[in-house]
Amino acid sequence: MMPVVVAAAPVVGLINQPVGVAHYLVVGAIMFVCGIVCMAMKRNALGVLMGIELVLNGANVNFVAFASPYLQGEGSRSLGLDGQVIALFVILLAAAEAAVALAITLNFYNNHATVDVDRADDLKG
Amino acid sequence: MADFLINSVGLSAALAWSLVAVVAAVLILNVIAGGALVFIWAERKIAGRIQDRLGPTRTGGKFGWLQSLADGIKLLAKEDLMPDGADGMLFRIAPYVSFCASFCAFICLPFAFDVVGQRLNVGVFFVIAVLGLEVFGVILAGYASASKWSLFGAMREAAQVVSYEVPLGMCVVVPVMLAGSMDLVTIAEKQAGWFTNWFLFHDPFTFVVFWIYVTCAVASVNRAPFDLAEAESELVAGFHTEYSGLRWSFFFMAEYGSMFLVSALAAILFLGGWNGPIPVAALLGLSEGTGDTAPYLVRLIGLANLFGKATLGVLVMMWIRWTLPRLRIDQVMTTCLKYCTPLAAAMFLGAMLWQIALPGGVVPVLRRPAAEIREGWLKGPGGAAARSADGAKVARVDS
Amino acid sequence: MTSDVAAALLVPLPLAGINWHSFFFLLFAALACGFAVAVVAAENVVRMALYLVLSLGATAGLFFLAGAEFVGAMQLMIYVGGTLVLLVFGVMLTAQAPFVSIKGSGRDKVVAGVVGAVLLAVLLQAALSVKAWRAPAAGVVADPAATPIGMALVGVRVDEPGVGAPARNVRPGYLLPFEIVSVHLLVVLVGAAYLARAKRRRTPRAIEVAASVAPPAVLAEHAAIGRDRARGGSVLAGGGR
User: Fold this and answer.
1) Is the pTM of this model over 0.80?
2) pLDDT at residue C6 in the model
3) Could you state, in order of their start, the residue ranges of all structural domains in chain A?
């Protein structure tokens, strides 16, 4: 409990100060790592797919943070339009990839009667 | 209002803005809840009349206008049931997800000039996006009810709503193209003046697009003849079979809220929004800048106009519901994919070609302000670069 | 250290000085990260889908706060309203009782946890190291309009006009990536529809075979329930067992 409170103190003090790019990057990092852990840990194929979505979203948060003119500090320039357009393309490509991944998962389910990725060992060894 | 609070009452800026936000949220909530109350009563009366009977006549006098209130009290007092095999958390959270989606879309819906919760530059896009999120509440409700009829109803509704988002989006893009902006306030302002300025009468393609929009909007909010998901004769009550009491009433507030929302959106995009058919305020000489009460009066007239048009849209939806028979799910999908989508795409192409060929309108005297919005971006600070960077591409749009 | 903690606990938040942008940033960030952790922690795949929806919705809020309104609306419409509905459909189609909660092995969890923690430490250290990223410059006013994005996708950059006439240093537009992504989406649409088509089969699918042969434990349980009911309800079934 104490370490949580100690860690929370600077975060709580943030309420009175403006946020910068670093804070967005922290959020992006947490989402990215959650996605990686989800991809590595889950046995359900759809769970792995959710991990992929989290990873792409963490990257998007980074892009949008760098693109924002409100968050940059003194003497540094934001990416501006480029960051937002890149984030847009990431969203589009993530949608396309999710569609194909789901089609593959459904085929797998029809053929093997399970979505457990550990059972996908037909080509093993 | 924030200025008044900061300057006259002397509150700090942070507190003043939060108070304004709370007031706006409460007002929108009242619009949805009060509207649902009135529309449920209206639905029962209209249904009765169309079916050659009277509808509610006992509660609250001859016209039964307190019937909705009585229904509300009954729903609040009902027993709180949950099926045995249901996933508790998902079952409880589903109605609120649906209602939140409906409520959030009202945030950037303008009710008069600049009377809007939050004026977004991408207003239209935001409203359409959030409307599509209502389907999550439905899916969760259908799954969490642990009943195969609920699940079937939920899946059908999700498929229907998601499919109809495509032609809905294409229909909505046409007025955005005519106005040159996705900001709902700007789109309605471009239709100021007499009713000939409305986008509905701008060109025949937009006229057809309006009717396609009506079809897609009715399908999007799952009203008959597209109400497969809650088909009483087939699936008991579809995805909300297992819901009773307050949770059911949340689903219905979400549905009536969405009906009002798409009607108001149709009014803003095609029917001039808060501008009446006759520009009363302009004729009377009232405008934003004259005097203290004139702006409020102008906005009040605009508010009445928008509410009138949106209510008319909702009543027409009810009329359609009790007149037409229900479509089968394959007929619903055929209508969307084989009729609405290609027609919307063709009309979009037609409207675009019309705009290129006749940007000033058919009759030059009634010159539409819509043609000038493009000039702003071309002549503005970024426009000169656009012109010099790619003169050939830009020259065609000049009128 | 203890004085810092005491200060944090005892001094109430000064309401008058709240920076609402930071408050909402903290709110949306807490929601996004909290639900992302919940996705990892949940065992039930339907709940995982719900937490993912909420996490990505909170991320859209973060986008709005950063001034990227168009990207935020796109996130809500395409990511949450399209991709996740697709995902939830997939979850519903495959969420038969045995597959709703598949538990991972302990070893996988430990390895994944360690790798994740190391990666998080590296990323956090990188994020917090640049001084210019810590606090924004004051007084930036920008109009978050969508028109520059639209113009850029058509190939015309209006956000930074070049110098001189004819313009020099004009940044390139995004027309080619736009066209490529459009064709890509068409290909994906056709491919996914083909992959997931209903195939006519001469032999039953594995899932149908599995469904028709109920596992012996379930059969025995149903038989036991039937026997109990018969014994409890009818006088004639006295010698049934």
Assistant:
1) yes
2) 46
3) 43-113
